[in-house]
Amino acid sequence: MLGDMSTRLRARFPDLADALEALEGDDIAALVERVASDAASTTGVVVPEGSLAELTQWAAEVDDTGWTTDPAGEPTQDEGAFHRARAAFAVRDACAVRERPEAAADSLYESVMAMGLPAVQAHLA
Q1: Residue 90 host element (H or E)
Q2: Minimal CA–CA distance to 13: which of 87, 122, 113?
Q3: Share of the chain above pLDDT 70, in %
Q4: Are 115 and 95 in contact (CB under 8 A)?
Q5: Which of 6, 78, 90, 98 is the most buried (most CB within 10 A)?
Q6: φ, ψ (nearest 5 deg) of residue 37
Q7: Is pLDDT of 25 > 90?
Q8: What are the tens digits of pLDDT across the range 68-95?
Q9: SS3 for 109?
Q10: pLDDT tens digits for 94-113?
Q11: Neighbours of 51 (CB within 10 A)
Q12: Residues near 7 by Cβ (< 8 Å), separated by ≥ 6?
């Protein structure tokens, strides 16, 4: 169903990509929704009700927070804000899985970035 996963998930976490590919349709959607919800809860992100377009806008707004400039003049995001933004994008991608199955890999990747690989792997155990 997911086809060739030449994604960030496959590149960085091949075992997680393999586990995701072993699942079927509704199981994939249920898994990424659970994991993304856990990422949001873990990072303290409050997910609003809304359409995919509204969640896309919300995730971008979450990602716009916590930015400063480091001494070299480069933009840098506060670690907590980074984790919250990743969780927001995980939620957004999880909501897109039924229309765009490849979003499942994106959602899991963002969840790993939000709360760490062990927390995501625990959902697959």
Answers
A1: helix 79-96
A2: 113
A3: 95
A4: no
A5: 90
A6: -65, -40
A7: no
A8: 999 999 999 999 999 999 999 999 999 9
A9: helix
A10: 999 988 989 999 999 999 99
A11: 9
A12: 17, 102, 105, 106, 109
Rounded distance between C-alpha atoms, residue 85 and residue 61, angstroms: 9
3-state secondary structure of 98: coil
Check if the beta carbon of residue 45 is closer than 8 Å to that of residue 84. yes
Total residue length of the chain:
125
Residue 44 CA to residue 50 CA, distance in Å, equals 18
Which of 103, 99, 81 lies closest to 91 in space, CA to CA?
103
Query: Cα-flanking dihedrals φ and ψ of residue 28, to 5°?
Result: -65, -50
Instruction: Identify the pLDDT of residue 3.
Output: 47
Q: Which two tokens stand for residue 121?
A: 């792997």
